[in-house]
Amino acid sequence: MCGRMCPSGCISSSGDGSPAFDSGRCIGCGHCAAACPAGAFSTGAAGGPACDPAAFLELCRARRSLRLFTDDPVDDDELARLLQVVGFSPTGVNACGLRVIAVRGGEVEDLLAGPLRKLMKALWVSGPLKAAAALARMRAGTEDFLRGGDPVYRRAPLVLLFMAPRRNPTWRADGIIAASLVMLNAQAMGLACFWNGIAEFAFRLVGRRRLPGARGFRLTAVLCIGHPAVATRPLPPRDWSLTDGSGKPLAAHRGG
Ligand SMILES: Cc1cc2nc3c(=O)[nH]c(=O)nc-3n(C[C@H](O)[C@H](O)[C@H](O)COP(=O)(O)O)c2cc1C
Questions:
Q1: Ligand 1 atom showing the smallest separation from residue 154 Cα
Q2: So what's the pLDDT on residue 252?
């Protein structure tokens, strides 16, 4: 079983039938330990699903993005608990190697929002941003930002930048999966959270140089997190479809 699970073929039968392990080929994925019926590599007791599926569905159902935060910081203990899930996130090369950059409190303005505002002011005065904002119907939001408001980061006390090593062939998915786990964990912990695509775009313009910790990594996702200032209500599920390969619907999914 261990040998069949092993993606790099480290485990084989030696002449007398006992297993042989070629550690030179091992990529450290742990699939052998996860499935070995004899527990030869075991890192803990094998178990069933760790979470009640109905409870997990409820967590997903109740999740909403939220952009209204109290002024309370996300403290070190909360940050550690929130990010624990990153260590269990799958990556294409198995080695994980992800980096999460936590920008907190006043640093959000100093490192991210302030420099973006400065750049946008220059573009606004010279013209192109005014036209682009009008076209995208974002003139009011852009003007608010230029006046010192924060429609981008929403004064979130914690901004998490999910970085994946440039060398990871599956870097984009690696980071997005980890961010998705953190989003769900935030929901489970009662924290407010929203994805920030604008901040992702802005990072390419102004963030990279200010965060030396980003060197050698690519940004895959940005989450803004804090304590909720209001409670959210679940909304009805969104529409999606399930088909076979020809496009024929297999079942109607109106999410209910
Ligand atoms: C990749 C991605 C980028 C997003 N970017 C932003 C953003 O820049 N600003 C924002 O307020 N919300 C952003 N969102 C949040 C979506 O607007 C929000 O998730 C969507 O309206 C669905 O609402 P829900 O998360 O409450 O279900 C983003 C969501 C995703 C998945």
A1: 11
A2: 60
